[in-house]
Amino acid sequence: MFDLKSIQDADVKNKKVFVRCDFDIPLVARGPVAGFLPESSRSRNTDMRAVGSPAAPVKQASSFTSFVRSTSATPRNFEIVDDTRLISSISTIEYLMEEGANVIIAGHLGRPSTEFKIQNSKFKINESEFSLRPIAKWYDEQFSAYSKKSKLNDFPGWEINTNLFLLENLRFFEGEENPSSSSGQEFVKKLSSLADIYVNEAFGASHRNHASIVGVASLLPHFAGFHLLKEIKILSRILENPKRPLTVIIGGAKIETKLPMVKKMHSFADYILVGGEIAEQTKILMDEEHRKIRGQKADLIVAKLTTDKYDITDESLSEFLEIIKKSETIVWNGPMGKINSKFEIRNSKLSEGDEGYTSLKLAEAIIESKAYKVVGGGDTIGFLNQHGLLSKFDFASVGGGAMLEFLSGVKLPGLVALGN
Questions:
Q1: Which of 105, 256, 352, 371 could cross-link to 68 by cystine, CB 3.0-4.6 Å?
Q2: Is 237 a member of any domain?
């Protein structure tokens, strides 16, 4: 579907490389920032690494010249509880540094409100829950470094080592989320001036039409990172020639983005199973849209929820499990009900009625099935990691909405920009 150039096609020695990574990850408040060491850095998911082996000390380049763009969603005074998305870009960063590039990594954290804009506010960035300070600490761990606050041109951030620099949250800047505006066009120029080459290693943000996703790629030679290429390869295979029956399971919230995907999945999937908050709020609408579809369409099953609306019923779970047993390909995005919001395991084994129970039962059934198993979405991946189950899936996509959009046939702006 896409024929994109790999970073291995680029001459990056002594070049500035702008790489867009994926940092939109679950966090939890644990206390003061001082002495912070991410718990998640102690466990690395090697299956997320497209190439190479676990991080080793990287040789230093003579001058700093690489820029990495990341979806950073890590508050400064929060701990990282799942680093799967961070790990997905490590191979690309290591490769660039080993080839003599100087790398700038940058991204966004959550959804800062407009009063936090750097240009016109007295807001102190380093006191914000949206600061990327925890990301800097995580990279310190990976590269045995001690980052220091610094600036790269007009951009605040952290120098991790002499050829790795992390920019502060790009959503603090006007223009990042609207590259076609006058402020957006100016922002694109400023970002582009930092680097010689652009690399996208943020599949999970490639459905965003943002300055650091599409704008910089339009002004610089552009290439795909290792994990982004792996995402495209595996998801394209599912989209174009899946083993059937193919079952798509959609849960969680984000109704405004997932509901259109359910409709588009009908020409692709054999079964569509819907649970979680999206099931409660859209059941009637989905049933009506399902009846309107002509031609080939998937069997749509929308779960019933328990009286407290926190989970799907046992009856719906049983129905889902029967379909899972006969599926040959399964794509899962979003938990079936409320999961532990603090990302802590209170019991080694969840019991019926516990938060996350039906999601755990669903995960176990998928793992036990003969199907090719793909999972995506930050909450789902974090939940599976929490229970030690992520490695039992064939592929973990760093994309949530991006994965669903790709499989529904939508042309992701970030991928289109790389193809131009």
A1: 105
A2: no
In a domain, 58, yes or no: yes
Quick one: 77 and 222 in the same domain? yes
Range of the domain at 354: 242-407
> Domain for residue 149, yes or no?
yes
Are 383 and 339 in contact by the 8 Å Cβ rule? The answer is: yes
Query: Do 359 and 215 fall within a single domain?
Result: no
How many domains does the chain divide into? 2
Model pLDDT for residues 9-48, shown as the tens digit of each residue: 999 999 999 999 988 777 777 655 443 333 333 333 334 4
The verdict on 251 and 223 lying in the same domain is: no
Task: Calculate the alpha carbon distances from 14 to 59, 65, 78 in Å.
Answer: 13, 7, 35
Place of tokens 């495209």: 232
63: its two tokens: 């001058």
Q: Which helix (H) or strand (E) holds 79?
A: strand 78-80
* 353: helix, strand or coil: coil
Distance CA 251, CA 281 (A): 12
Q: Which residue has the tokens 């002509």?
A: 294
Residue type, 16: K
Answer for the pair 82, 385: CB distance below 8 angstroms, yes or no: yes
Q: What is the pLDDT of residues 98-130, one digit of tens each?
A: 999 999 998 887 887 654 455 444 445 444 678
